[in-house]
User: Which sequence fits this backbone?
């Protein structure tokens, strides 16, 4: 019995030790919980600011402020290089420079899960309306499941296969335009994707909605895409069918390297190609435009376009790019000597990300336009830019 005996002092010491251990454990647990709450709050601060509307859709706001400084050597082309399409051999040479922020844009996105699939919408605008300085609508569409309804990029547009140059007009060669449309898309889960759409014709002389189709396939080191469009055009001679087909590809031949290329062929598609702001409806003796959808006999004008670009990421925040594009037009009835036979562009530039949302860079652009009388005009442009994303 004496062997199990503990003095009152020993019992007190044991109780005190137990209490201290429990207190230390509780303090440790409280500290761990506090650290977890702080970590959760910090993570939440990194999330984009979102607003929930009355339907439970998560709304997000995005945009960029883009400032461009351009200096033309031979002809003042305006805020983009697209002005070369109207320069002829009789245009007086005049160097020019300009600083603008017309490529600044802003937009809203939202999405939510439904029994029919993801419900999304996107509204976006920029300041390139009216040739620059006026707000205009770029995108306004909704998506549910595989359906897209509203204004966005045409199914015929070449996007992923087009180099990301600094100039707003971009390179010669591909078609890139936005129209109101109804499109159905399907992804087969094997890298194969298809799109089919009915689209408002890009120009007022479209006699009916255009129909477009595209199929793409992704591979380990690149992608391949084919697209087709059919349109009907009104002219003084009646109506005529226009069509276009393009094939685009991307390929990663080495680490951090990328090749992008496309080829476009068609009839009556001048107004949906690059530099299309200067495409007219029908060729004739009055002039004023330099390439057309329809010739003087009412036939669709044939053309083709090429584009190839090579880019390389030297460092995670530094990349360089070079691209060449061309658009060629077959001789057509009513063609004037000063109308466009061929239009070419070369872009060589680079981009440096000072911050994740601040990019600086620029490019040298060379544009050349060849007329049917073989006279040529060309312009060299230095383009410097800064982009702030938010």
Assistant:
């Amino acid at each position: 019995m004496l062997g199990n005996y503990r003095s009152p002092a020993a019992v007190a010491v044991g109780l005190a030790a137990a209490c201290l251990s429990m207190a230390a454990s509780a303090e440790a647990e409280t500290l761990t919980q506090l650290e977890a709450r702080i970590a959760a709050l910090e993570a939440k601060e990194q999330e984009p600011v979102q607003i929930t509307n009355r339907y439970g859709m998560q709304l997000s706001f995005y945009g960029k402020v883009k400032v461009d400084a351009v200096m033309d050597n031979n002809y003042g082309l305006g805020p983009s290089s697209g002005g070369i399409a109207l320069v002829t051999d009789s245009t007086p040479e005049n160097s020019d420079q300009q600083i603008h922020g017309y490529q600044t844009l802003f937009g809203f996105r939202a999405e939510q899960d439904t029994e029919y699939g993801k419900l999304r919408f996107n509204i976006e605008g920029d300041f390139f309306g009216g040739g620059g300085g006026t707000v205009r609508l770029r995108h306004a569409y909704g998506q549910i499941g595989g359906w897209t309804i509203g204004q966005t990029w045409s199914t015929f547009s070449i996007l992923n296969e087009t180099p990301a140059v600094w100039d707003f007009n971009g390179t010669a060669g591909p078609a890139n335009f936005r129209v109101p449309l109804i499109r159905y898309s399907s992804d087969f889960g094997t890298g194969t994707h298809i799109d089919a759409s009915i689209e408002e014709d890009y120009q007022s002389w479209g006699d009916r909605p255009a129909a477009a189709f595209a199929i793409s396939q992704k591979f380990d080191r690149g992608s391949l895409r084919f697209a087709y469009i059919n349109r009907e055009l009104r002219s003084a001679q009646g109506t005529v069918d226009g069509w276009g087909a393009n094939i685009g590809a991307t390929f990663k031949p080495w680490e951090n390297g990328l090749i992008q290329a496309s080829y476009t062929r068609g009839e009556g598609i001048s107004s949906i190609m690059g530099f299309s702001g200067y495409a007219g409806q029908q060729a004739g003796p009055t002039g004023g435009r330099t390439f057309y959808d329809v010739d003087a006999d009412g036939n669709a004008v044939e053309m083709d376009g090429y584009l190839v670009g090579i880019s390389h990421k030297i460092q995670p925040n530094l990349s360089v790019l070079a691209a060449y594009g061309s658009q060629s037009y077959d001789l057509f009835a009513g063609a004037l000597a000063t109308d466009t036979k061929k239009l070419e562009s070369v872009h060589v530039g680079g981009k440096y990300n000072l911050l994740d949302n601040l990019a600086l860079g620029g490019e040298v652009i060379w544009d050349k336009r060849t007329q049917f009388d073989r006279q040529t005009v060309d312009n060299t442009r230095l383009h410097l830019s800064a982009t702030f994303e938010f």
User: Anything to note?
Assistant: Helices lie at 8-46. The chain has one helix and 20 strands. Residues 55 and 99 are 43 Å apart (CA to CA).
